[in-house]
Write a structure and sequence with these properties.
Length: 104
């Protein structure tokens, strides 16, 4: 019987920020906090999602839903960058980036 192929995970995960919505002004919470939510997908296990370098919490299996609370933010324009990494070390090559307006 021939040996079956051994798949290699060489594809990075993909991430989308679902909240806040681009173009909507967002109010900061106490201490300049803002909750960011999103979704990620990969054909293997995702090990982490970060937003602006802060690790997100997995809310559902394999980061299909995630959330992170950013703190110490100030009013003005804010660039949010979400990026995922899978268990093979593949890091998202084109992180999801949005610009939002933050108000007090």
């Amino acid at each position: 019987f021939p040996t079956l192929l051994t798949p290699v995970d060489d594809q990075p995960p993909a991430t989308i920020i679902t909240w806040p919505k681009r173009g909507l002004p967002m109010k900061l919470g106490k201490g300049g906090t803002l909750e960011v939510r999103g979704t990620s997908t990969d054909d293997y296990q995702i090990t982490s999602v970060t937003v602006n370098g802060v690790k997100a919490k997995d809310l559902d299996y394999n980061f299909t839903e995630w959330s992170v609370k950013l703190s110490g933010l100030k009013p003005g324009m804010l660039k949010l960058t979400a990026q995922a990494t899978d268990e093979s070390g593949n890091k998202e090559k084109t992180p999801h980036v949005i610009m939002i307006s933050v108000v007090e």
